[in-house]
Amino acid sequence: MTLLLGDIVPDFTADTTTGPISFHDWIGDDWAFFFSHPADFTPVCTTEMGRTAQLAEDFAKRGVKPIGLSTDTIEEHFKWIDDVNDTQNTTLRFPIVADPDCEIAKLYEMLHPGESETAAVRSVFIIDPDKKLRLSMTYPMSVGRNFDEILRVIDALQTSDANGVALPADWRPGDRAIIPPSVSNADATTKFPQGFEEIRPYLRTVDLNAEA
What we know:
Elements: E1 13-14, E2 21-22, H1 23-27, E3 31-37, H2 43-54, H3 56-61, E4 64-70, H4 74-88, E5 96-98, H5 103-107, E6 122-127, E7 133-139, H6 147-163, E8 177-179, H7 185-191, E9 197-200, E10 203-206
Parallel strand pairs: 3-4, 4-5
Antiparallel strand pairs: 1-2, 3-6, 6-7, 8-10, 9-10
């Protein structure tokens, strides 16, 4: 299968370092940051696991649950967590899925033969409370993820959903948003009483933090 944006992500049951889960039930009413790793006890993965643990409060305040996956066993995961905590000066509490048979990696197309037949590439899936895929990114095995971008895009998705807006290049919370072309000026005036700037008929920006 090819997993596309807007699709409901595949459900699965699995053993994790925090106990067995059914993925959809585990997500519940939250967002999920589901990310895969080539293997335990590898250098780049260790830094990524540590960074995710360090950002626990940042994910929590956004209503996002991190969950990792590596094509190794639970026993290996537990040993690896000790290394992550020690080398990255953190305490890892989020679950790591055990996928020694690569069943989930295949289900989510995390195996790229050009990289490896048995190790998952660095996939990122941002999943909303409706279990829909909202963003996916795939990094090569040799390059670590940018966690500033992961948090930024979660903020952007949640801001877009809450306000019915689009976000421009390099948007950060507090920056001006874009009113979609599908919204007429009359409707925009009602929806955004604080006013908006029309740069072009198709490019209108609004300050979401301004008072009406």
